[in-house]
Amino acid sequence: MRYWVDFDGEGFEVTIVEENGTQKIILNGEAKEVELFKIDSNGTYVAYVDGAPLIFHAEISGNGEVKVSLPDVTHQMNIVKSVGRSGERRRVVDAGPAKIKSPMSGLIVDVMVEPGASVEKGTPLIVLEAMKMRNEIKAPRPGIVKELKVNKGQTVETGTVLLTIE
Questions:
Q1: Are 23 and 75 contained in the same domain?
Q2: Is residue 87 part of a domain?
């Protein structure tokens, strides 16, 4: 699988390859051998990168944003899109309506915007609870909320359109 990842403002092409039970990560063409183990249900992991251990905490939101906390620093990542076969990044287009869909089945526990609201990229829109975890759905780009299709307390399925931003 190939992805484009924005990491602290810099873009990287990331390819993940499974070989002999080990994941190999190719970062901008440079291969790294990685073994990843989940330590607990709170998002703590240990990764052995080229044999060296790295312990970190990851908070993953439903819209591709990942917050990675190391002992002395925290990084923000945004997994933008998968990379096509040609190797070109598929860009998120800021023109036209953007339908914000539920990344998983769950319960809408908070709706933080209403139709007509102006939002910036990263503005919290909706809180979705799934498997006792709350996931904040954020705006993928700036725009105006045109349509709100869900209400607080409503149950939604994966892929349900929650709202539209123009």
A1: yes
A2: no
Task: Identify whether 8 is part of a domain.
Answer: yes
The residue to which tokens 């998002």 are assigned: 43
Residues 59 and 9 in one domain: yes
Give pLDDT tens digits for 66-122.
788 887 787 777 776 555 544 444 444 444 577 888 877 889 999 999 999 999 988
- pTM score, whole prediction: 0.46
Residues 50 and 23 in one domain: yes
Residue 99 Cα distances to 63, 78, 93, 117, angstroms: 12, 18, 12, 15
Per DSSP bridges, beta strands 155-156 and 106-111 are antiparallel
User: To which H or E segment does residue 164 belong?
Assistant: strand 161-165
What is the C-alpha to C-alpha distance for residues 134 and 146, in angstroms, rounded to an integer? 24
Please report where in the chains the tokens 């052995």 appear, as a residue. 48
Domain count, the chain: 2
Judge whether 92 lies within some domain.
no
**How far are the Cα atoms of 51, 67, 83, 91 from residue 22, in angstroms, in the given order?**
12, 24, 22, 30
Q: Does 134 score more than 70 pLDDT?
A: yes
